[in-house]
Specification:
- The chain has 552 residues and is mostly helical.
- It has 23 helices and four strands.
- The strands form two sheets. The protein has a two-stranded antiparallel ribbon. The chain has a two-stranded antiparallel sheet with strand order 2-3.
- The N and C termini lie far apart (102 Å).
């Protein structure tokens, strides 16, 4: 392949063409194309259709089918291979199904032939193939991702919402497949390919993770994993770039379609970390992975996130204390499905914890667990009570019964009959039985203290009631009480009489009292005749169903 063509390909991929300079008075070159696109034509010129982020509009190209690689002698195949790759740089509009059908079929057949050629032949990858395939990959795939159709819509739910599929997928899947065949080929030369697969390439590749099509994200995940394995010099930069994506997701946009796939890649990367862990790896766990727990869309990627956290703790168990406290820091207040997910993750962490690490987190852990046990959401309470079926956790609790039992016993005993769900009652009874079997002495002591505290609370409540009665008795003995009657209302329910409103509507601030009963203040809103008629009509038909508290 001519050197001039190779140089041009490299410039087009990495956007480095310094020969041309903008004229005087023109804006910087970085904004030149943007201004040309954003400029609105005037004077009766038809405004072209906006370019889709899934399709970069180009002039229509008529492709001609080239001879098959099998028909050419081995010496002519490299040149024909490059010509077919050059053909595949043509991009077509798949939003119009019936446009350029012939050229689309020619490109599809060429991609299939190139894939088969690299898969079935050995020692056929020459140096000229690398820039050509990288250029073709960039032209077809590197593009800006579209914004969400509804920016204020709730987050995407993979179980209920249908994803937006890529219109040009019939060609894109073959482009991904061809690039993977090159990376996985035994003839792949990473030392030569790193001239073209560099940091700029990696950054643009990471942007493809924001695609809404799950098929494309899966291919990008595989490509990035192969790049991480082949190019050792890019590993540190790739990890930092992924960190930047996470930080932007957590602290800026809170929207990204590929967090689960990125975490899946990191899971395999973390699994290969050498021991002892480097400070940068520990910082990544505490400053990048843990803040991902606070997003409301954590259910989309929680399985991959929990796997990464557990992988870190298996490498270094001393990080358990910081991890558990970090998870408890981002514990939700009202998001019950998220609470269930975090309880699942905590139980996975407790499976690998050591007794020394458990002693450091037992108090904040069981305080949160006790709050979950009394949750009115039965799934949260049920998941929290399943912790008492974990044999390893019960073994750890047995060593710290004097500190753990006083935390969990009161809510368990109180809600053994007070919870609205009967299945929770049975689970609580089982949990109490387990605690008694672990250490009956501490259990009896907690039971006695709980009953004593309950008796003291009842005694204090009775004393408070007696003091109020004594205070009321003294107030009635005061001579002024004859002028200012002391009323102790006992509300009952009776139907509202809307007919009285007509007589009192002219006095909105007047206090209405009936026989010294409960006082009601009329509304300060202006009188509306239509509202009054509607209320009267309603009272004549359904008066017996509307009840308010009043005195006897």
């Amino acid at each position: 392949m001519p050197k001039k063509l190779v140089a041009n390909i490299r410039k087009s991929v990495h956007k480095k063409d310094g020969k041309s300079s903008p004229p005087k008075g023109a804006p910087p070159s970085a904004f030149a194309n943007r201004l040309n696109v954003d400029r609105v034509p005037t004077g009766g010129v038809a405004i072209p259709r906006r370019d889709s982020s899934r399709f970069r509009r180009t002039k229509k190209v008529e492709l001609t089918k080239l001879p098959s690689l099998k028909e050419k002698p081995p010496k002519e195949r490299p040149q024909l291979f490059l010509q077919k790759v050059q053909q595949c740089c043509a991009v077509f509009d798949f939003t119009e199904a019936l446009s350029e059908l012939k050229s689309k079929e020619v490109k599809r057949a060429a991609l299939n032939e190139l894939i088969e050629y690299l898969s079935t032949n050995r020692k056929v990858v020459v140096d000229e193939y690398y820039p050509a395939i990288v250029e073709m990959f960039a032209v077809n795939l590197f593009r800006a991702m579209p914004p969400p159709a509804d920016p204020v819509a709730p987050d995407f739910d993979p179980e209920e919402d249908e994803p937006t599929l890529e219109a040009a997928w019939p060609h894109l899947t073959l482009v991904y497949e061809l690039f993977l065949r090159l990376l996985e080929s035994p003839d792949f030369n990473a030392q030569f390919a790193k001239k073209y697969i560099d940091q700029a390439f990696v950054i643009q590749l990471l942007e493809l993770f924001d695609s809404e099509d799950p098929r494309e994200r899966d291919f990008v995940k595989t490509v990035l994993h192969r790049v991480y394995g082949k190019f050792l010099s890019l590993r540190g930069f790739l990890r930092k770039s992924i960190n930047n994506v996470f930080h932007q997701f957590v602290y800026e946009t809170q929207r990204h379609n590929g967090i689960a796939e990125l975490l899946e890649i990191l899971g395999s990367i973390i699994n290969g970390f050498a021991l002892p862990l480097k400070p940068e790896h520990k910082s990544f766990l505490l400053r990048v992975l843990l803040p991902l727990h606070k997003l409301k869309s954590v259910n989309v990627y929680h399985a991959q996130l929990a796997y990464c956290v557990v992988q870190f703790l298996e490498k270094d168990v001393t990080l358990v204390k910081d991890v558990v406290k970090g998870i408890l820091k981002f514990w939700p207040k009202v998001n019950c499905p998220k609470v269930v997910l975090l309880l699942n993750e905590l139980e996975e962490i407790l499976e690998i914890i050591e007794p020394d690490g458990f002693a450091a987190i037992q108090e904040p852990l069981f305080q949160e667990l006790a709050r979950c046990v009394v949750s009115p959401h039965f799934q949260v309470a049920e998941r929290a009570l399943y912790f008492f079926n974990n044999e390893y956790l019960l073994t750890l609790m047995a060593d710290s019964a004097d500190k753990v039992f006083p935390i969990v016993f009161p809510p368990l005993y109180k809600y053994s009959t007070a919870h609205w769900n009967r299945s929770i009652h049975q689970l609580i009874f089982n949990a109490l039985k387990v605690l008694r079997d672990i250490n009956s002495a501490v259990f009896d002591d907690c039971s006695a203290k709980y009953k004593a505290n309950l008796h003291n609370e009842q005694r204090k409540a009775q004393q408070r009631e007696e003091r109020w009665k004594e205070l009321e008795k003294r107030a009635k003995s005061n001579p002024l009480s004859q002028k200012v009657p002391i009323v102790t209302p006992e509300p009952v329910l009776r139907p509202i009489d809307y007919s009285q409103r007509q007589n009192t509507s002219a006095k909105p601030a007047e206090t209405v009292s009936s026989g010294g009963g409960l006082l009601r203040r009329k509304s300060m809103l202006p009188h509306d005749p239509s509202t009054q008629r509607a209320l009267e009509e309603f009272s004549s038909t359904a008066q017996e169903h509307v009840l308010v508290p009043v005195n006897k």
